[in-house]
Structure formats: C-alpha cells, structure tokens
C-alpha cells in the first residue's frame, strides 16, 4: 500500500508484554510510526475479512499520523471506506452529495487497490 510522498505501509510486529502471548502486529508508515489497536491474532473468517481488518488499521494510522484521508476517490476527492457488498469488498465514499448517501467506488476492487495499484475512481 502506498501513499503519495510516502513509502509503502508495512505490517510491524512488536513483542508481547506478557510471556506466552503472541506478538502485536500493527499497520505502520514506512518510518515505523503506527496508531491504534493491534491486529488480533485470531484467524479471521476468510481472507476478505482479514483484508478489511488490515485496511481499517491502515486508515487509522494514516488519519492519525499524517492527518489525511486514505484512500481517496479521484472522482469526488473524498476518503473511501470498505464495505462488504454481497460478498465482495468494495470502496465507498460520500460522493452522492449531502443527504444522498454513500457512493459505490470500485465494487470488488479492494484487493487490487490495497496491492498498491494506486487511486481508483468511482466505477473502476
């Protein structure tokens, strides 16, 4: 996952504070800074669920450390959030305007986007 003017985001492991407990894993900026709760070691239901957890952690780190929304919808220049729509992870923004509700931005494209292929516009 990349951001303009930033290196790629990374998964960062920190040792546990208690013996016998698993290490703590965070989504961090390229310089190692992170924010928020660690990712829990419990195995998610499926790979899509795991991807959604990592995406949420990445958004928390970017928002709190860089004070910016990520990822952005190029059509509306608004931050997007992931939703499960009929079993496909999809990016949504509020691009429908005030009171219009969320706008679908790239149905089922979350995996491609998170792999570092850049910003996606609505309908991609």
Describe the structure.
This protein has 124 residues and is of the alpha+beta class. The protein is built from 2 helices and 7 strands; from the N terminus they run ββαβββββα. Strands 5-6-7 form a 3-stranded antiparallel beta sheet, covered by helices on one side. Strands 1-2 form a two-stranded antiparallel sheet. Strand 5 (81-85) and strand 6 form a beta hairpin. The longest helix is centred in the middle third of the chain and has 20 residues, at 47-66. 21% of the residues are buried.
H/E topology pattern: EEHEEEEEH
- The share of residues in extended strands comes to 15-25%
Uncertain spans, ≥5 residues at pLDDT below 50? 111-124
Helix content: 10-25%
Describe the secondary-structure layout:
Elements: E1 10-14, E2 24-28, H1 47-66, E3 72-73, E4 78-79, E5 81-85, E6 88-93, E7 103-105, H2 110-114
Task: Report a brief summary of the structure.
Helices cover 20% and strands 23% of the residues. It is α+β, with helices and mostly antiparallel strands. The two termini are 18 Å apart.
Keywords:
three-stranded antiparallel beta sheet; two-stranded antiparallel sheet; flat; disordered C terminus
């Amino acid at each position: 996952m990349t951001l303009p003017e930033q290196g790629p985001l990374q998964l960062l492991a920190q040792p546990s504070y208690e013996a016998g407990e698993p290490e703590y894993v965070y989504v961090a900026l390229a310089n190692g800074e992170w924010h928020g709760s660690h990712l829990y070691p419990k195995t998610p239901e499926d790979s899509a669920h795991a991807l959604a957890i990592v995406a949420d952690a990445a958004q928390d780190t970017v928002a709190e450390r860089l004070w910016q929304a990520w990822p952005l919808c190029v059509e509306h220049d608004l931050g997007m959030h992931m939703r499960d729509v009929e079993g496909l992870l999809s990016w949504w923004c509020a691009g429908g305007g005030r009171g219009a509700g969320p706008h679908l931005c790239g149905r089922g494209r979350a995996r491609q986007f998170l792999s570092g292929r850049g910003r996606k516009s609505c309908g991609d």
